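Reminder: ligand-aware prediction takes two inputs, not one.
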Amino acid sequence: MTFHVLTLFPEVFEAGIHSVIKRGIQDGKIAINVVNIRDFAINCRGQTDGYPYGGGAGMIMMARPIYDAYKSLGAASGRVVYLSPQGRVFDQTTAAELSAEGELVLLCGHYEGVDQRIIDEIVTDEISLGNFVLTGGEIAAMAVIDAVGRLVPGVIKPDSLMDESFSAGLLEYPQFTRPRTFMGRDVPEVLLSGHHGEVEKWRREKALEATRSKRPDLLEGKGHG
Ligand SMILES: C[S@@+](CC[C@H](N)C(=O)[O-])C[C@H]1O[C@@H](n2cnc3c(N)ncnc32)[C@H](O)[C@@H]1O
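Here is what comes back for the chain with S-adenosylmethionine:
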């Protein structure tokens, strides 16, 4: 799967790719193509933004440089996601849905946002990381790449995805590793028993317990998962 990122701050992506996603790239399962919108500036001063019509604070990213950056992708098409506080809130269901796409364009806004006409012209989806305002779409795009990229077949072993939080409408059960005792707290006996059936039963109960206490909305079918 290829992520095409349209941004004014490509360096964010150089610093942010590591671990599972980096391995996915090395294995040829994922590609990240970062396009610097500044390369499509309207003049030799590198201008890509302007004052808002009607007045008001801050600058707006111009439609033309974004459009030209998008067009430079050539035949690449498919869904174009604008990372925006006004979008639908990103969740695991959306991540799974997007992981089935062969290509995804991620448009990162900055300053006061982008000219509405570029949204109307090229954007198919608006996605928000949550009900708060970030300085730019780059961190949100990184989150989308990470959450979607790890679901691309072959990036992670299917086993690792099976009991994960949200995979069956539940949060994951508690996990433990060595040592068996830490600060006087023991690993639950059942996990040392070697009894597969009992371990499964315990995990299911604990997953339900965690969901009930931390995210009861998931059990009521109202949660974003
Ligand atoms: C400072 S914000 C602009 C906010 C805009 N003026 C508004 O009030 O809706 C700049 C950019 O950050 C990104 N951004 C901000 N909050 C976000 C969020 N919650 N999720 C995803 N992207 C966000 C968007 O790309 C946005 O264009």
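The longest strand covers residues 79-89. The chain has a mean pLDDT of 95. We will return to this case in the review session.
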